[in-house]
Amino acid sequence: MIVAFSVTPLGVGEDVGEYVADAVRVVRESGLPNRTDAMFTSVEGEWDEVMDVVRRAVAAVEARAPRVSLVLKADIRPGVTDGLTSKVETVERHLSE
């Protein structure tokens, strides 16, 4: 499964990059395939391991912010691996035709 999620601290002002970095650090240290862009961090793996990473990423932000917002989107497709790469490659292939 692939989960794209965004963790936003609330009540800490406009500059939230430091807090978001705490969440991304948890994802990167998990060892699961992941990507971060301007809006979301995507992580790929089995249900329990991915949801544990999301939980810990939220907890990392929650430890420093009075309130946390979580947006999550999941692609649950058993048997598919390397979806983070293969899905993008498919789109790029169609664009090059």
Automatic annotation (TrEMBL):
Record-annotated Thiamine-binding protein domain positions: 3-92
Pfam families (UniProt xref): Thiamine_BP (PF01910)
Superkingdom of the organism of origin: Bacteria
Similarity annotation: Belongs to the UPF0045 family.
Alphabetical list of PANTHER family matching this protein: UPF0045 PROTEIN ECM15
Name of the featured protein: MTH1187 family thiamine-binding protein
